[in-house]
Structures are given as C-alpha cells and as structure tokens.
C-alpha cells in the first residue's frame, strides 16, 4: 500500500514538473509562433502626447499630406533611395538590423500586386497594420460577420517608383511620405474573403469605423483618397521608440 502511494506521489510530482516545463516553454516560444514581421518590438505610448511629431485627436480622415510627410521624415528612413535596384541591394541589411520589416500576407491583411512600391515598412508601421487588423476583425465578429482581411495596395517607394507612378497618378507627389517606409495605402472598396476578392456591403463602413476610432487615439495620420479608392496612412511613432531604434 505504501509503495503504491509513493508511486502515485512520484507520478504526481513528475507530471507537475512536466506541466510547469510546458508552460515555461510555451511562454518562451510564443513570440516565435507569430509571423516574423510582428516580432520586432516597438514602444507604445500616449500617442496624442508623446508622438515624435505633433498630432492631435481627430475623427476626420483628412490629414494633410504635408503633415503626414513631417511624421514620415521624423519617424522613417533617414536615407531614402533613388532607384529600385539601390533599395533591393540594401533591403536585406535593413531587415537584419530591424530598421525595416518585410511584409507578407497574414490573417489580418493581404498584400496586393505591387507595381510601384516594395513590401517593406518600419516596424512601427507593421505593428500598426496588425493592430488595425485585430480591431477590424473584432468589430466584424461583433456584427456577426466573418474575418475579412483588408488589402494593402502601396507601401515603400523609391524616387524611381514614385516617378513612374506620377505618370499614371496625378496625385502622386515627388516628395511622398511613401519614400520613408512609414506610409501605406489600404483600399476601401475591396476585401479578402479567404483568398477570394470580395466586395461585401457592410464591411467598408465597419472598416471606416475602425480607422476613425484609432485616429481618435492618434495612432496615425490618414487621408481618404477618393480618386485612388484608398486610405493613405502614415504611422505615428513614440519618441521612446525612435530613441531605441538602430542606426541606418
């Protein structure tokens, strides 16, 4: 009888230690279970008070391009790129140094076919995309809808790609915030249902509500560009995050 109790006690201790080891291992590897692009740590703050460039709370989706450019120049690449080939040569090094992050499709968003930009952003902008996706899908569930993904249509541009775009888009400024890796466009008239392009009736309104709420929190600057059917968004970055960023 004593031997049986002793056996059960040893078994209980062994299983308890195993459970503790599993919990510790799960906590340790959890960051590595998410996509690589979300693993770069960035600081958070009261963006309305502690952003690196001035920003105030607003419910309007009409921030001027000059204001977005100011935030891009403060929080983005210190050296922009003249040509696409120059950027592609430097991209791997910038990613290894955590200055830029390579964007890929995920459960929150889809990267559209990019003809005049490259799928790279500063880490703060990538984490902003994730936060938009989390809040958007939360609101979709609250409305009894499935998890649609939004579509990113333009990201980082070089002078060369900006010039090419200007031939087709009269709104494209030569000194665009897109050149600094802080800025991206999201279409507001199509979404992804799994891997299928969809045009759901209620979803654009829910997405707009998501962006309005996050603009109140000063998470970004945003302008609704009707000619291009997109939201032009520049991330707001905390002063602390900039202070901890590696040199380009």
From TrEMBL:
SUPFAM superfamilies found in the cross-reference section: Hedgehog/DD-peptidase
Pfam families (UniProt xref): DUF5715
Name of the protein in its database record: Uncharacterized protein
Originating species: Paludibacter jiangxiensis
């Amino acid at each position: 009888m004593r031997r049986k109790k002793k056996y059960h006690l040893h078994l209980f201790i062994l299983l308890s230690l195993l459970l503790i080891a599993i919990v510790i291992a799960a906590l340790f590897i959890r960051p590595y279970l998410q996509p690589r692009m979300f693993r770069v740590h960035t600081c958070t703050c009261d963006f309305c008070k502690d952003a690196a460039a001035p920003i105030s709370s607003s419910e309007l989706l009409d921030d001027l391009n000059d204001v977005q450019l100011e935030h891009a120049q403060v929080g983005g690449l210190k050296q922009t790129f003249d040509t696409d080939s120059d950027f592609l040569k430097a991209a791997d090094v910038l990613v290894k140094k955590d200055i830029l992050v390579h964007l890929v499709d995920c459960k929150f968003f889809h990267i559209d076919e990019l003809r005049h930009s490259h799928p790279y952003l500063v880490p703060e902008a990538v984490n902003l995309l994730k936060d938009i996706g989390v809040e958007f899908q939360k609101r979709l569930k609250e409305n009894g809808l499935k998890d649609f993904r939004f579509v990113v249509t333009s990201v980082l541009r070089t002078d060369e790609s900006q010039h090419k775009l200007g031939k087709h888009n009269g709104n494209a400024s030569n000194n665009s915030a897109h050149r600094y890796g802080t800025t991206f466009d999201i279409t507001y008239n199509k979404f992804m249902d799994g891997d299928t392009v969809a045009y759901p009736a209620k979803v654009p309104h829910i997405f707009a509500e998501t962006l309005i709420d996050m603009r109140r929190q000063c998470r970004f600057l945003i302008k609704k560009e009707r000619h291009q059917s997109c939201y032009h968004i520049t991330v707001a970055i905390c002063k602390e995050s900039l202070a901890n960023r590696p040199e380009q």
